[in-house]
Amino acid sequence: MLCLTGCRVTEPEVLPYESGAYVVNTGSANNGSITFIPRAGGAFEFDVFNAVNARTLGGSVQDYAEINGKGVILVDNSTAGQDKVEIVSVGTFAQLASLSAPDVENPRFVGAAGPNKAYITCRGTDSNAASYVLVVDLAARAVTKKIPVAAGAERVVAADYEAFVGNVQGGASLTVIDTEKDLVKEPGIVVGTNVNPIAVDANGKLWAYVLSTREMVRINPSSKTIETRFVVGTGNQNPVSISLSADKQTFYVVNAYFDPLVNRLRGATYRVLVTDTSLPPVPFISRVFSSIGTDPRTGVIYGGIAAPAGQFGYVLRYQPGGALIDSTVTAGTATKFVFRD
Question: Residue 1: its pLDDT value, please?
């Protein structure tokens, strides 16, 4: 472009939280928060929401996801009627809207159900109440519907105009929801007692974890048939975190057990390819993480180290091959990683 005297060039806006990782800290005593760790290093922000909006989230942070330029934060307060969903602008974390009771009661997990549409699982006013999926129009920043589901609704994963909802109160089926009509489709997919969806892999297959049998299960979401299942628990160790890599080709399974001698969890992390039919015999990293995630740009692996009550936690970063890079302090215990490009 030819620029003569008086021509002004506008530089692109640099957003404060644009390139790096959001670290979700569920917290305790209503002190959940989200830390931002820049990808290039430098200063990190312990409580991004508070730094931008001059107030804390005011509850435990159950989940966080980004959908069409909006961040959706699920906040569960220990006081009845104080639960909420905060909608923020990604990259700046400035609040756009807040949804609260009676629409939001005991929120659990959030997933994208289409352009500008979020599905949020909620447990209702108590553990025995029927659960529901809250449908939120993020463009209008409003609740459009509640879809009743069985008690104990937990994780939600969408694929091909359908969403799959898990259950942790004895249910053996994934509930299937038509995301165009926002209606439950019958029957669900019988997988096993206390089943939760994990993610959809690079081949378009839906994966779930069955707590009762400690199995990972691969499902064809089109035919609703189970293609393979195998145990991922080892001896006295059970999965505490399962995460799909950024390229959707690899799962990281964190197996752990409680050691009373040291009063903490011990265990190891395994790398499971989406083509595997069993847990590898040798761990990928011989330590336990509270959560694990991979940077889609660099392939760097982030692992959370649980924090003692009232103390800071840590995030360890590893090369894709498993070599340790560094560690960074974070607020509390990391329970999820969400990466910004």
Answer: 40
